[in-house]
Amino acid sequence: MPENFSLATEILEIVWINILLSGDNAVLIALACRGLPKERRRQGVMLGALLGVLLRVGFTLIVVQLLEVPTLKIIGALMLIAIAIKLPNEKIDQSKIAAKPDLWGAVTAIVLADAVMSLDNVVAIAAAAHGSLHLIVFGVLLSAPLVMFGADALMKILDRLPILIFAGAGILGFEAGELAAGDPFLARFGEPPPHFAAFAGAAGCLLVLALAMLWKVGASRSEKRGA
Asked: pTM to 2 decimals?
């Protein structure tokens, strides 16, 4: 039973992280396809999202292998912390996303942009999966239809309940702490203390939430002064 619960928790973490970090990708898909005729728009969304998911799975499998190299887990953890802190304060610049008039032009734009924008998804999913290739593939494929078909609904929910974004940032911070704690480089300093990974995860979670909140408060004050 505990093993099944742990597996379910890891799957939910991967799905939730992928949904949160794919919000910009979902907007990108919608904007790239907005210039297509209505009958072609659904095809563009489906093809672009499908190819983007396959690309992300491939990148994630590569990253999982690279994370076995000493110090790369620590570097990945620092990247995750930066991503998590930015997550509740991120805004998508829609002016840089051009509508494409033809199907394959839209699909190509989606795939190229997805390849550039998916580094955060890849590192986060690799960390949450703890090296399990099956979990990576299953989690990404499970969340893909949610992103493809429910992007608008998801964005509305997150706009109304920003606490969910902070919760996602906290999860990323926890995964970052656990990821850093498992770096082979640290083994050179001897056996880690009991529950070291859990404590590192909790520290990462608290650090991310504190810094994200400070950023949010600072940005709000700046906007008020600017107004």
From this structure: 0.74
